[in-house]
Amino acid sequence: MDLYNSMSNAMTTHFPLPGLHTTSANTAKTYYNKGSAPLNTKSKKYRLQFDIDFIPEKEQIKAAEVRFTMLNNKVQRNEEFIHVIIHDIIQPGTKGVSKPILRIIDSKSINMSKVSKSESFDVTPFIERLSKNKFKENHGILVQCVTLSGSQIRLLSVFDFVSPEKTLLLVYTDDGTSEKSTLERMMRRSKRSVGHSQKRAKKICQRYSMYVDFKEVGFNDWIKAPLGYEAFYCQGKCSFPLASHINASNHAVMQTLMNNYNPALVPLSCCVPTKQSSQTLLYVDVDGKLVVKNYPDMSVDECGCR
After folding, report:
1. DSSP H or E stretch at residue 254
2. Closest by CA position to 258, among listed 276, 277, 238, 285
3. How many domains is the chain built from?
4. How confident is the model over 83-106, as a mean pLDDT?
5. CB–CB of 26/175 below 8 Å?
6. Which protein family is named in the record (predicted)?
7. pLDDT tens, 183-227?
8. Any domain includes 191
9. More exposed terminus of the chain, fewer Cβ within 10 Å: N or C?
10. Same structural domain for residues 243 and 155?
């Protein structure tokens, strides 16, 4: 929801997040930690397991991050800074036989005197490795927390790993499709049909209000936010002479002129959207995953004759 709120008023279909290469991503999928909470409350290492076993081949992985909820306590305040290390578990170890094969993929020093609500870590290499292996070698990631002097710290005194929803994996992808048919395919999931509004009396080409209420059209069972949005639409005549304020192309001017000369030969130019903006949707996909996606051309900003 935080990601949706941050993107809902953005003037782009991408996710320009600091520190991550998400500028060309238009989809973010959320995965929760499926691993059990540490049995030992004094545990200084913890494995996170995310139930991610498939990303469509058409979607390019742009970035991935894990977000941990910080605990606002004073247990570690005697340490001004702590250092968090994230490992990709390449191969799990066997107790008494072999140690796990780990790869450090991110690390960060955190100022414990200025604890934020959450901290994020870049785990893009982890997701890229899984993708190359068709997600068959997903052993999770290992979190380790140490002081700057090197001594280890109890993880449960720093992060909320007890509540599964407080630990998230976000995978940012680009599905390579900006055409409207992408949203149209999603809309077919609804069993209800949308009725047609009465035709407005023909006037000069202009923009009219059209609020889309997702509950009214039967999409609220899978679209979780927003409840609706102002889409607008264009309607009106593009007749000769075209008003100066109408955003008309040169071709539309010529077509209107020819229509005025011989209406039977050439039809009037059409009143259509000439500038559109995107809309962010928070929805549940067919696999039950919570997805934030920016859909382009969802709202009309300007109308004109074309």
Report:
1. helix 250-261
2. 238
3. 2
4. 91
5. yes
6. Belongs to the TGF-beta family.
7. 555 555 554 444 444 444 458 899 999 999 999 988 888 999 899
8. no
9. N
10. no
